[in-house]
Write a structure and sequence with these properties.
heterodimer, A: about 400 residues, mainly alpha, 18 helices, B: about 250 residues, alpha/beta, OB fold (Dihydrolipoamide Acetyltransferase, E2P), 5-stranded mixed barrel, 6 helices, elongated, TIGR03943 family protein (chain B), transmembrane helix (chain B)
Chain lengths: ~400, ~250
């Protein structure tokens, strides 16, 4: 939403920018802002983003925020009503603030180094150490996959023409969704990698239903995860097949559900920059990667905090009571998958260890885990918006349980 | 978040990753050894990305100071996640950096193990078959494989064999103590405990909880029913305090 009221100012500032070395002022501006969010009403916004822009929703908030005293949009130096005056005044102020921010960062690093010396002899209480270990472990473990996903996403933004992706998938969504679901086989990562990639696919014009099917299927049915499942359930190849079928089935059903019932406004009406023709591909790649990585990384931290807290709080012994009741046990392990937020490449080992539970319940753990968990909900909320994340996660949770119960009853 | 700060944050995050993976072995407290090359690569890419970002910022400043000043105050990360006007979500990435640098959290240990059951997964098949135990006296085993053989191997090849096990000490039920080791399959969030109850004269007095010990002893069959949470017994002949191993997990 906020881009709606910020963009006029950026447009004003960019309009003053000179044309340099083959780059247009627009591209320079984009580059200088790192990742500009354009006005929803900007003439530069091509409608081919796969999502209709919800201007009805944005306009009132724009008005409200501009009128709010003290909000940035109402800052007199940047208010869009005074474009000519805003030119000469801000530089001195901006310079001052920029130096302040840098000094702050340097001071922060110095304080960090000092504090490190000081805390050398201090030992945190056991629960806090455990929490921190799990938190750091989740972040450290996920970062390579997140980087992989954002690099792929930035590469799609910079190097793959939108027309290619649109041609690659069938036009009919009834066909595109299963094709995209099966295409999940090719992304050998865990769920952290698939969120930025799916986001980018939507931005590049892939139908959201197909991109969402890909989002759900890729962390569950790629070869690395299936191989890990086969190792964890040695001697039970039917478990690998069951996981593949239940995960793919859930992804396709969710894609079709989105096609039938999904509303575009649930997805955040994000207005994006497409690759400007003829601009430096590497510059676009770098700016996209930096933005996506920092943004998704922040939400990964939220997910890590949630998962670490629940991980430390929920003793696994509590679960044992539910093991005897088949229907309850499926639900309990599905909830456990949401709570623990174990990476999809490792969840098979955890599922195998929950051997007091019936196979269908362990299947539910492996089907739900890569699609809905605390870390993933935070990532999705940050990427697609909260309105989307809770609806989509709740629906996926139910569909995944149904698929696991059905496939588990049939195969296991 | 401003561009310069973003560059610094990327470099900090990359440095923190390199610090635990390239310049020390402390990554083993959090993830499996197999992840090391990926951590090093990620750290290096993050540092390079931060440097590239800094260069781009300087270039933008040189090209047009006025524009860069004004535009540098951009709003990346502010779009619609409820932090309007507040700091970008990316600031949260300082938390893992701070945790790694300031707290340097230790490997999971007795606190976690105390709160989890011993988990010995039953191998596949109704009557699982095992290869014969390797030679060696004492035979060095992981706690996990000792537990599997003691609980599930009906041929009971451990009978009479001296074994050497390494783990840390957790308090047991009824005054005894357990030799314990945690297993991780991906990261510390999925840690599972394997425990062995240590009996015999050499087991007294119990070493302090959390300390690392090497135990040489013989399996003590107790005829208990095999369950995934069965804790086998070991008669210790020798208990030696050792420093924490480089990789604290199995």
């Amino acid at each position: 939403m906020i881009h709606a009221q910020l963009a006029p100012r950026q447009t004003v500032l960019c309009a003053d920018g000179p044309v340099k070395s083959g780059l247009t002022d627009r591209q320079l501006c984009d580059e200088a802002t790192g990742w500009s969010r354009r006005a929803t009403h900007s003439p530069f916004d091509a409608p081919a983003h796969g999502m209709p822009v919800n201007s009805r929703k944005d306009s009132p908030s724009t008005l409200r925020r501009v009128a709010t005293p003290g909000s940035r949009a109402a800052d007199p130096t940047v208010a869009p009503e005074h474009p000519p005056e805003s030119g000469p005044t801000p530089p001195s102020r901006a310079t001052r603030r920029r130096v302040g921010s840098l000094e702050l960062a340097v001071a922060g690093i110095t304080a960090l180094l000092l504090a490190q010396r000081l805390t050398g002899g201090w030992t945190a209480p056991a629960w806090m150490q455990t929490w921190t270990t799990v938190f750091v472990a989740i972040c450290v473990q996920a970062l390579p996959f997140l980087l992989f996903g954002t690099v792929l996403s930035a590469a799609i933004a910079a190097f793959v023409p939108a027309s290619f992706l649109q041609r690659a998938l069938p036009r009919n969504p009834l066909l595109a969704v299963p094709v995209a679901g099966v295409a999940g086989v090719v992304l050998p990562g865990c769920e952290c990698a698939s969120v930025p990639v799916a986001d980018r696919l939507i931005a590049r014009g892939v139908a959201p239903a197909a991109a969402l099917a890909f989002l759900l299927s890729s962390p569950a049915i790629n070869p690395v995860v299936l191989a890990a499942t086969a190792v964890a359930f040695r001697g039970h190849p039917e478990m690998v097949l069951a996981r593949f079928l239940a995960s793919l089935g859930t992804a396709v059903v969710m894609g079709l559900l989105w096609e039938r019932f999904g509303r575009p406004e649930w997805l955040r009406p994000k207005v994006r920059r497409d690759v400007p023709p003829g601009s430096g591909r590497f510059a676009v790649f770098r700016a996209t990667l930096e933005h996506d990585l920092l943004h998704a990384g922040g939400f990964l931290v939220i997910g890590g905090i949630t998962a670490a807290t629940l991980n430390v709080l929920v003793p696994r012994a509590v679960l044992k009571g539910a093991a005897g009741l088949p229907a309850v046990s499926v639900l309990v392990l599905a909830l456990l998958a949401v709570v623990l937020a174990v990476c999809s490449e490792a969840d098979a080992f955890v599922a195998a260890s929950l051997s007091v539970f019936p196979p269908a319940a362990r299947l539910a753990f492996m089907v739900v885990g890569p699609m809905v968990d605390t870390k993933l909900i935070a990532l999705q909320a940050g990427t697609f918006g909260r309105a989307f994340a809770w609806r989509f996660s709740a629906a996926t949770f139910l569909v995944a349980i149904a698929a696991s119960a059905l496939i588990g009853w049939w195969l296991l | 978040m401003r561009r310069e700060v973003r560059a610094i944050l990327l470099v900090l995050l990359g440095t923190a990753l390199l610090r635990i993976s390239l310049f020390s072995d402390s990554y083993l407290r959090y993830v499996r050894a197999a992840l090391r090359p990926y951590l090093i690569a990620t750290g290096a890419v993050l540092v390079l990305l931060g440097v590239a970002s800094a260069i781009a910022t300087v270039q933008a400043l040189r090209a047009d100071p006025d524009q860069a000043h004004a535009a540098a105050d951009d709003h990346g990360g502010d779009h619609g996640h409820g932090h309007h006007g507040g700091p970008g979500i990316a600031w949260l990435l300082t938390l893992p950096v701070l945790a790694i640098v300031l707290i340097a959290p230790p490997a999971l240990g007795s606190y976690t193990a105390q709160r989890s059951e011993s988990t010995t997964v039953k191998p596949a098949g109704a009557q699982p078959t095992f290869p014969p135990l390797p030679a060696g006296d004492p035979l060095t085993m992981t706690l996990g494989s000792f537990d599997v053989r003691a609980v599930w191997d009906t041929a009971a090849p451990l009978r009479g064999r001296r074994v050497r096990l390494t783990g840390f000490v957790t308090a047991g039920k009824g005054g005894g103590w357990y030799l314990t080791r945690l297993t991780i399959s991906c990261c510390a969030a999925d840690a599972l405990a394997s425990k062995v109850e240590i009996r015999g004269a050499a087991a007294n007095p119990a070493p302090p909880a959390g300390s690392w010990v090497e135990v040489i002893g013989t399996w003590l069959p107790d005829g208990k029913e095999a369950e995934p949470d069965t804790i086998p017994l070991l008669t210790a002949a020798q208990v030696t305090r050792i420093p924490e191993p480089k990789d604290p997990y199995e």
